[in-house]
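Note to self: keep these together.
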Amino acid sequence: MSGATGLIGGALARRLTRDGHDVITLVRRSPRPSERAIAWDPVRATIDRAALEGWQLDALVHLAGENVFGRWTVAKKRRIRESRVAGTRLVSEAIAGLDRRPPVLLAASAVGYYGDQGAVELTEQSPAGDDFLAEVARDWEGATRPAARAGVRVANLRFGVVLSKTGGALAKMLPAFRLGLGGAIGNGAQYFPWIALEDALGAILHVLASPSLSGPVNVTAPRPVTQLEFVRTLGRVLRRPAVLPVPRFALGLVFGNEAAAMMASGQRVLPARLVAAGYRFRFGEVEPALRELLAARGGGS
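Structure:
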């Protein structure tokens, strides 16, 4: 697994270990002798292929990538792109060249693939957008082709906004909302393609266990909501007002115009292939998900 220190990867590694699986992580340093890890460096395009060959791998889960939050300078955009495209190509080419290839590669992607298409319902068959993140996602998924050509089953996991109070977008929103300073971006009509972390993990495990699932798979809840509905629900769960709109120009001043455009856009994404493959969501509605996430240890007040 790559990205094992991230929000999804860390939780997935713990779940797999708890369930009795051996997790070998890709790390950007020399592994310690007692560590189940393989060295790689996506910037320098190096990976320890001998170590990869030395393990009998049942699957490779590739989740690494530069965080998209923050001001999008030229250097930041380059890191966003290269960490995804070049890193995925490195992993894909490496396993394609193994004598004992893992039978499946799950590679992260994102619903940013679709761009901003308003209220149109989007499934895995919908076309790509044409903005920066859509182009990155298209090339990101394309970088898995060497593994697919070598006979590895490849699934491109198009993640929505993963909800957890310990990291990601929700954790960044909570301080302002707890102070009663939360609100939608603009008029809030844009769709918010959310998924609870527990269902994101469940979806990954379901795809791993489903030989028929290859290619793009939307990892989002079955009922996307508008951003306005999301922030009103979050305010209700926290018992705080959520009525202060965030002007688009203010986002531009803080994050730059392109990052602001990303934050002000949305996608009405449906997990069509997960549903067809029989995955049962624990949290199909946003309010029960938020109440569960924020109830423990006083998280809701």
